[in-house]
Amino acid sequence: MSHPARSLRLVHVATVVLGAGLAACQSSGSAGPDAYVDTAPVVRDSAPADLPREIAAIPDAPIADVAIPDTSIPDQALPDVPPDVPAVDVAIDRGPDTRDMGVDATPIDVGVDRGEGYDRPGCTGDACDPCANDPNDTDLDGICDSRDNCPEQPNPDQADSDHDGRGDACSWIQVSVEGQTACGVRADHTASCWGLNRGREAELPDGQYQWVATTWSAGASCAVKLDGSAVCMGNPPIHSGYPPTIIEGHYRQVAITDMQACGLTDDGKVECWGAGPFGPAVTDRVAWLGAGEDFICELTTAGEIKCQAQNASSPILPPPTGTFVALSVGGYHACALRADGSVVCWGSNQAPNIMGIKTGGQIDVPSGTFKKVSAGGYHTCGIRSDDTLTCWGAFDNDFETKADDLVAPTGKFRDVFAGRSTDCALTMTGELVCWGDDTYGQATPPFGGMQRVAAGQVLVCGLRKDGHPRCFGKNVSAHVAIPDEAFADIVASNSHACGLRADGTFTCWGSMVSSNPPADKFVALAAGPKHDCGLTASGTVRCWGDNSSYQCNVPAGSYQSIGADGDASYPANCGVRLDGTVVCWGKPDTFASLAGDFTQVDIGNAVICGLHADGTMGCAGRTQTPPGTFTQLSIGGSYNGAIKTDGSLVIWLGSNSLDIVATPPGKYLDVAADKSGGDHYACSVADSGLLRCVGVVYR
Fold first, then answer.
1. How many domains does the structure of the chain reveal?
2. Alpha carbon distance 24, 63 (integer Å)
3. In 513-570, which ranges are E strands?
4. Are residues 571 and 632 in the same domain?
5. Same structural domain for residues 11 and 94?
6. CATH number for the domain including 653?
7. Domain final residue, candidates 403, 436, 469
């Protein structure tokens, strides 16, 4: 490894060699898509005056034959490089690389120097490749994890607009977590929603966004696209069901009460839609807009605050006078920030005493100065002048039992977003951190880097690219001990999951884990509500756990595939025999066999579907199936999913109808449908590793 100071001095040499080298490659046609440059080189109009003449004068020879001896650059030869300028490695490539990160078939290796030792002049092959010893590319964007500024979200351009070392694709800029659904916008203007999805309020269409908003109780969400139009999802009256309603206009912000949504236009006007009585609260130009449970407040460009109640019988108490630089509206109170960093909060007539409401509606605020303030349901969070975070009040009108949840995480933060009983904050690099109530997964932001997914009634589990499981769901983090080891496959049902190791052994976790598991080694597993089954390499199927409906009494024969129904009302299993016929056992006991050349089978809510050898789908108990050929299927209680032979995804609803659900284009690795009774959903994993779910997901 060369001395760090030496790598800095090589920057200037790199600009000379790089300019000539790339020009030569472009003219000869040898440079191409394999070229890998992950930072912009420093370009100078001329060589520094003190640059040694033997370096400034490059021999007239192919660049692959040029070598720069380390001793040719005296320590005092070049001036210091500003600390904000990344160093660039340039080395001669005299041999092939086993892992191509952009240097194969090119005469020069270029990469950011972060002190790994790849700055040695004259190094060859893998020695010059910063990713040679890192075969992991979790998000499959062509950049190894050790060099990727966002390893779980595909971002081949490595865009980092604020230069904080964290890519725009995983750096969040705005979040809304008012109720049991959360939404957020990233720095690359992609957006996601997570948490409760009972009214499909978390199904945000693909697109580029600048703002998101959720509601305190109505099960709806809205977002503003980069083109200024607004889109709303979820329950009426804010819009009329699904698909999402598009509101044309030029908005920069949107806020939602339990009856109405209001948008702030680019020219500072407020426009509202839905069933509420709101109109503009002020005639002045509005700089910021916020909504509570049943009121809205506006911050004018002059710094004044105006509020308007939705219901005259429960008005918001008068806002404070004076001028302010920021405003935040909670469920039943609001807070404002003055230019001197002081905070003032006031409440509505419905706000409980636990918020510390005093005469005149003012609410107690901790001493000190703040940079940010965010009003939640019955509590408030703020970022102090030293970038630390503090919260006061109570979660969801339950001060005694949930006071500990208000303990904010330690560290430095640049923004905070308080909700009814869940809060989120952004670290100084844009990482999203959430805490509090996670009943529906609203405190578990979306994640990538996955390869497999399994769906239960109250939990979803997936396997990362390294095989380690990650689960989320209804209070999963509080009640489920997830194994810290790698698995080859994963299955789930109801409230438990099982991981299959590469050696054929397995382990299960969660509640209602099946009792008396066998010691056999398996090549596949299937999970039922209170029982599980496994398929051995010899074709034997073994089932264990609850046998109240004879779901563990496996018919004799050898099998090539198995599936289990996760609905507790229909504890049953199906298997594909070696001759391609499908047999089922358990409840109900009136299953008919499916004859044919099947290779896969799955069962959900007593509906059986399988894939024929040619990839087409055949079902019993279902009258319509999607057309095409498939490589994988998952049958659920309401949602169903399948992956086509071209890698695209199909998700549909119903057992006797074919209601196709819109899914993002692209290729997919896995799909899993919830088979339990009641609410249902389906989850998928794209080839980028991004996990998506539709339906009512207890995340």
1. 3
2. 8
3. 524-527, 531-535, 541-545, 559-564
4. yes
5. yes
6. 2.130.10.30
7. 436
Show the domain range for 427: 171-436
SS3 20: helix
Average pLDDT per run of 10 along the chain, which is 699 residues long? 34 32 34 32 39 38 38 40 42 37 36 37 56 75 88 89 93 94 95 84 90 89 96 73 80 91 92 73 79 91 90 74 96 94 82 51 84 93 96 66 64 96 94 86 82 88 90 64 93 92 95 87 95 97 94 96 87 94 83 82 88 94 85 91 96 78 86 80 87 68
Instruction: Enumerate the β-bridge partners of residue 233.
Output: 221
Instruction: Examine residue 352 and say whether the peptide bond preceding it is cis (omega within 30 degrees of 0).
Output: no
Question: For the chain, what's the residue count?
Answer: 699
Amino acid 453: pLDDT: 96
Does residue 291 share a domain with residue 371? yes
Distance, CA of 553 to CA of 586 (rounded, Å): 8
386 shares its domain with 426:
yes
Q: Provide the total of helices (H) and of strands (E) in the chain, helices listed first.
A: 4, 47
Distance separating alpha carbons of residues 511 and 488, to the nearest angstrom = 22
Would residue 139 count as lying in a domain? Answer: no
pLDDT of residue 88: 40
Q: Cβ distance 490 to 500 under 8 Å?
A: yes
User: For position 598, what pLDDT does the model report?
Assistant: 96
First to last CA, the chain: 47
Nearest to 347 by CA among 355, 369, 339: 355
Take residue 54 and report the two structure tokens written for it: 């033997």
Closest C-alpha to 175, from 429, 387, 428, 425: 425
Q: Tell whether 499 and 604 lie within a shared domain.
A: yes
CA distances from 232 to 68, 186, 196, 215, 225 (A): 61, 19, 16, 11, 11
459 lies in the same domain as 420 = no
Q: Let me know if residue 340 belongs to a domain.
A: yes
